[in-house]
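Before going further, it is useful to explain how the protein records used in this thesis are read. An example of such a record is reproduced below.

***
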Amino acid sequence: MRTLHRTVLAAFLTLSLGAARAEPVTYTIMSKVSKVRFSLEHQGFIPVSGALKIAPGSFVFDKQDWSKSSVMVSMPVKMLDMGDGLWNEQIRDDRHWMGLFNTPTISFQSTRLERKDDTHGLLYGNLTVAGVTKPVVLQMQVNKMGRNGVSDLQAIGISAMTTIKRSQFGLDAYMDLVGDELAVDIQVEGWIGEDPDAAKEAMMNGDKGMDTGMGSMH
C-alpha cells in the first residue's frame, strides 16, 4: 500500500512540476503605446528630450527561464520627435545629421537576458544607430504581467534603461552645444495576440517590408 501511495505521490509531483514549468511566450508589441525616450544636455542649461516609436513586431519572454527570452525592435528614424515641429524640421534638414537620417531605422537585437531577481535583469544586445553597431547593456524591469483591462488579453509591461554616447555611433555634430551622453528609457507593452493597430501603424511609419520580427538568443 505504501508503495502505491509513493507511486501516486511521485506521479502527482511530476505532473505538478511539469505544469509549473512555463514555456517561452511570444508577445506582440503594442506599437501605439510602446516608445523609446532619450534625453541629453542642452549647452549645460537643461536636459532636452526626444522620442522614437517602436515599430510593430514581437518578442519572447520566458517567466521561469529568462535566458530563453529574446527581442529585436526597430524604430523608424523618420518618426524621431523632439517635441517641437520646427526643431524636428531643422534637425532633418541639417546636413550634420545626414548619417542618422540616411538609415531608415535604429534597431536593437538582444544576445542574452540575465535574471537578477523576480522583476529585474540585465539585457545584453547590439544597438545599431546610423549604420554603426555597438554592444550595450540595459537595466531591465518587468513592471507587470496580467490581463489587460481593454483587450482582455494576457499582457506584459517592460522598462529598460541605459546610457550611450552618440559620438560612438558617428553622431558627433555640435559636441560643444549638445551633450554626448544620451540617457535612454525604453517602455514596451506586449500582448499575447495580434495588435489590431499594427497595419495602420506600419502604414503611418512607412515600414512595409521592414523586418520587425523577434530575434534569437546566441
